[in-house]
Amino acid sequence: MSAVMERQAVGIEVVPVTTHVGAEIRNIDLSQPQSAEVIRQIRAALVQHGVVFFRNQSLDSAQYEALAHAFGKPVRPNSGIIPALAGTTVIAEVRKDPDMGRNVGGSWHTDQVYRPNPSWGTMLLCREVPTFGGDTLWASMSAAYDRLSPGLQKTLRGLRAVHSNANVQSRMNTGRAPDPDVVHPVVIRHPESGRHILYVSPSYTRHFEGWTEEESKPLLDYLYQQSQHPEIFCRFHWEKGSLAFWDNYHTWHFAVNDYEAGERVMHRIVVEGPPFDRELETGA
Ligand code: SIN
After folding, report:
1. Is residue 22 part of a domain?
2. Domain count, the chain
3. Atom 6 in ligand 1: which residue has the minimum CA distance?
């Protein structure tokens, strides 16, 4: 067995794609019901790698929903942004047609951060891809935190930040008022791995609590710059039947809008998971 391949007892293979983020899971047919042990192994890979990828999967909507249920309660899509796919209640269709300039998710963000209780996991199943381009990037926000000095880490652990989906609502021309602002710790501890995670993102974070936007901007910009080192992200090239499953606490992602012709159609399901602690860490 290769040093980078973790073969599990019941047969799935977990193959990391970079040191800090991303792993491909092989030897599995996700259209079939999975044993509790396989679900546990996939979840463990997700906690460790932040995002896992599966290739050549053939799932109808009912099988896809059943898969999501095995990991947690699926969340109904936000109907004001992307409504549920016809005939389903929890699958959102993330689509870009050739005549659309903008895509969905075309800047670094973490899903759900603008909600009072952000959901843990997102699954994305590829239904159509353009002939080139349309990849997605993920960054490890625990690796981003680890890059910072102990002094800055300690300062950040004492801060909260205010988040809003106002920019995204206006960029997507939804015509809806943004959801109310929410406040989360700037550094969260992952409820399963216990790792510290930098929990701010360019698409949704407005300012630090008690600071103005002007005061917050230089430090936020610094954190964003530190979070965009190529060493802490991975890039996934989609094919029809690829499925990515990521941990929204652990990662940022970015859908690259580098194609004009061809449609790109993804089916997304968000699932709930264990919540993170809302208290600030005041210790050293
Ligand atoms: C998203 O941000 O949820 C969409 C990601 C993608 O389409 O690659």
Report:
1. yes
2. 1
3. 255
